[in-house]
Amino acid sequence: MLSNRTDGDGRRFLNLSTGACARVDLPELSAHHLETSADGLLLLRNKASHAARLLNPLTRVLTDLPPITADLGSAYTLWTGQSPDCTRLVLAGISEETSPPSVVLLMKDRYERAIAYARPCDQRWTVMNSEVWGSLSISFSFSSASTLQGRFYFATPEGNILEASLRPEPRLVPVVASQAKIEFNVNSYLVPPADHHRGGGMLMVRYYTTLNHLSVNERRNMKGRRDVIRLDERTKKYRWSLIQVLEVDVAGKMLLPVEDIGRQQACFSLSARTFPCVAGNAVYLGAEGVRYPPVGVRYLTGKAVDPAFQFTTEDESLLELENSELKGYRVKKPELNLVPLARPCTLQEYLVCCAGLLGGLKD
User: Fold this and answer.
1) What's the pLDDT tens digit per position in 28-39?
2) DSSP per-residue string spanning 255-319
3) What is the pTM for the complete model shown?
4) Residue (of 212, 207, 203) closest to 293 by Cα position
5) Residues 6+ away with beta carbon under 8 Å from 181
6) How confident is the model at residue 289 (pLDDT cuts 50, 70, 90)?
C-alpha cells in the first residue's frame, strides 16, 4: 500500500511483481487502525474493541482473528497501545507450519515485548513466554521481519536473525547469531524475497548512522572501503555512515556480503526492469522525516550517494526538524505524515515514504 493518508476511503496499491497500480476504496479503514501488513494482507485493529482482523485489500474479505484479551499480559498492553510510546512497533507474518496457517505477531515498545500467534479458527492467542527468549545467548529485540518458504523470520537491530518456529513446540531458533551487540547506531532490515531474485532468498540491509562500532585503526582507513558514506554537511564526529547489503544464507546460518544485486532495489526488492524509473543495484532508505535519513539512494556500483528526498508536513511548526524522525511526534498527533513538496508525486517518493513510515505519503 503506497498511501494510507489519502482523504476519504481511497488507498493506492502497487503490485511489485507486475508494476500494476490501483486505487481501492476501503471503508473498513475508517473503523480500524492499520497496524502493519502480512504477506499482502492488512492487519487491522478495531478502534473501539481492539479486535484483530486481516483484510484482503483487493477482495475486501475480512478475516476475524481471536480476541487479544487482558489475560495475555504484555501482548494485550502492546496490542491495544495503552501506553503511548514512539518506540512501539508491531510486525506480523504468516507461518505455514500449522494448518491452517497462523498469524504471528511481534510487538514491542521501550519497556515490553511479546510474541503471539493464532489461527483464525483458534479460540485464543498463544504467547511465547519470556523463557523462550531468556535462554538465548544473543540480545532479543527486533527491527524487521520476513517470511521465507512458509516460515517466519525476524532480525535484531545488529543483524542477528531468528526464526519464530511454532512446531512441535513454540521456540526461537537462531539462524544467524554471530553479530555482536551494538548500541543505538545500527538498524538491520530483512528484505522480503522476490521470486526473480536469487531463487527467492532474503537480503539484509544494515545501516550504521555512525562508525562507533569500528576500531580506531579501522576508522582511519575509510577511503579504502566501498560500503562507507561521507556526509560533508555533518560534524566530523558523525560525518561517516555505512550501508551494507548481505545475502541471508539460511542453510549455512550466515550473512554473505553482496556488492551486486543486479537490477534490484531494497528494501522492497523490486526490479528495475519492471520499474525503469527506479535505479537498479541500489538501496533506497525509507524516509522517516522531512529530510531524514540524510541519505536518499546508495548505489552499490562505486560509492555514489544521492541526497535525502525532501518532503514537508502539514504542521508548519515541525518544518525546522529536518534531521528528526516524525514517529515521536505522531504519538500525540497520529495523523501527522509526510507531504510532497510538489505534485504529481514520483514513484520513488511513494516508495521511500511507504518504507519509512507506516501509512506512507499523504496522497
Assistant:
1) 988 998 899 898
2) EEE-S--TTEEETTTEETTT-TTS-SSEEEPPP-BTTBSSEEEEESSTT-EEEPP-EEES-GGGT
3) 0.86
4) 207
5) 138, 139, 158
6) confident
What is the DSSP secondary-structure string of 29-68? GGGEEEEEEETTEEEEEETTT--EEEE-TTT--EEE----
Mean pLDDT of 152-169: 92
Residue 307 CB contacts under 8 Å (≥ 6 apart), including other chains: 294, 295, 296
What's the half-sphere exposure (Cβ side, CA atoms, 13 Å) at 143?
22
Q: Where do the H-state alpha helices sit in the chain?
A: 74-80, 130-134, 216-219, 347-356
Asked if 343 contacts 312 with a C-beta cutoff of 8 angstroms, the reply is no
Which amino acid, 29? Answer: L
CB-count exposure of residue 270 (10 Å: 0-12, 13-18, 19+): buried
Q: Which long-range contacts (CB under 8 A, 24 or more apart) does 193-201 make?
A: 193/146, 193/148, 193/269, 194/16, 194/17, 194/264, 194/269, 194/270, 194/271, 195/17, 196/271, 197/261, 197/262, 197/264, 197/269, 198/247, 200/148, 200/149, 201/148, 201/247, 201/248, 201/249, 201/250
How far CA 318 is from CA of 65, 315, 341, 357, in Å, comes to: 38, 6, 15, 16
pLDDT in tens, 180-213: 777 667 889 998 766 544 445 889 988 888 777 7
* Preceding amide of 57 cis, omega within 30: no
Q: Are 204 and 188 in contact (CB under 8 A)?
A: yes
Whether the pLDDT of residue 334 is over 80: the answer is no
Rg (CA), the chain: 20
CB 10 within 8 A of CB 23: yes
What b-and-e string marks burial along 147-168, b requiring 16 or more CB atoms within 10 Å of the CB? bbeebbbbbbbbbbbbbbbbee
Nearest to 33 by CA among 61, 7, 56, 55: 55
Please work out, in degrees rounded to the nearest 5, the angle formed at the alpha carbon of residue 154 by the alpha carbons of 275 and 294. Answer: 55
Q: Using the structure block, give the residue that is written with the C-alpha cell 494448518.
A: 99
